[in-house]
Specification:
Layout lengths: L16 E4 L6 E7 L1 H4 L4 E7 L14 E8 L1 E6 L2 E6 L3 E4 L5 E5 L5 E8 L4 H6 L2 E3 L3 H6 L3 H6 L1
Length: 150
């Protein structure tokens, strides 16, 4: 049995750095935890899609990707099957599933996204252009107190 004790890590939106992976993307990702901070092969992000925003159609060789819809609506496709996403829904995408997430609403789509194992996901996100959260993002993420500090 491993007797080491890991100190819990607490972060809030003021600690996150958001990125736009490609300049034309209408979605942003903010890494909350990654393999370095979690001491495990996991990446946990907040992903924000503008209306009409979507991920590119892609797959992961071994990674399982999971989403929790914080706010908004959209569609997910995986291997040709399309499902509707609404606030409170969860989605699990298996390894090798060719998939995309698309915001079909008139407002932003906010998701929590996990990738296990990391499969270079955190590195891909960090290779993008840094961007900032705005007031709406901070309200949805529940940190109105951060608005005063900005």
């Amino acid at each position: 049995m491993d007797n080491r004790c890991m100190i819990p890590v607490v972060r809030s939106p003021k600690d996150y750095q958001a990125y736009r992976i490609s300049p034309q993307d209408k979605n942003r990702l903010a890494i909350v935890f990654d393999p370095d901070s979690a001491n495990a092969s996991i990446t946990f992000c907040v992903e924000i899609f503008e209306p009409g925003g979507k991920t590119p159609l892609h797959y992961h060789k071994i990674g399982v990707e999971m989403f929790y819809i914080l706010k908004g609506q959209g569609l997910a496709s995986c291997d040709g099957k399309i499902v509707t996403l609404r606030t409170g829904d969860t989605l699990l995408v298996p390894p090798t599933g060719i998939h995309e997430i698309r915001n079909t609403g008139t407002e932003r789509l906010y998701t929590l996204c996990w990738m296990v194992p990391n499969e270079d996901f955190a590195e891909l996100v960090r290779s993008g252009t840094p961007v900032e959260f705005d007031e709406e993002d901070l309200r949805v993420l529940g940190r109105q107190d951060v608005l005063v500090a900005c």
